[in-house]
Amino acid sequence: MENDPRLLVHAYVDGELDPAHALELERQLAQDPALAAERERIDALRQVIKERLPPLPVPLALARRIDAAIGPNRARARAFSAPPSWRALAASVIVAACLASSATWFAARPVPAEATADMVLASHLRSLMAPQPIDVVSSDRHTVKPWFNGRVTEAPRVVDLSPEGFPLVGGRVDVIGRTPVPTLVYHRRQHLISLMALPSGQSPLAISSERTIAGYHIVTWTQDGVTYWAVSDVAIPDLESFAKAFRDAPA
Hints:
alpha+beta, Phosphorylase Kinase, domain 1, 3 domains, 7 strands, globular
């Protein structure tokens, strides 16, 4: 916590810190505007996920089967001690069934653009909280591009944008919708830009669309059968300039 209190903000928001550490983090939140802003971003992101991915209702027939399986007396006891417990059991049964058949909700139908945007942002945030946000550190595109071989289905297009003010700093592999995707990482002043390359069929979005989630901006476009997602907390004009420079750069 002394090195990077941002790593404990998620635990604080989830109520997982003990009282001593929670009080210490609250003190730091009151004194550090940047840390307080990070907490606000996490709160906003949690709210977005809650609104866009509401819990699925448990079918009544399944709830009755579970109650019948555990017995009426035990069911009543569980109802008094923990009302939602049968719902948790039902959710476990549903998850187990989905895993056994290798068919989850995401695999059964195309992932909506909003859900893809949330996953892209979540991957970017995880990288910022990791000790090292980049798997391969290099400003040489001839080093970064070959590194992806064998790690993803197809190595991404890598361009040098340092003349435009967006130097390449490396790359990593993220998982979006259970699919490993290549991510290029660029630098803009004190900010990092994550550029993820997804197959166009996995990202049903129009060319050059943009959105803002929890203070982070996302710009996406489709080019040569690949949908690119650029996400960062840089100003939106900077991110749009980055997207244009990448699109216009020679292969």
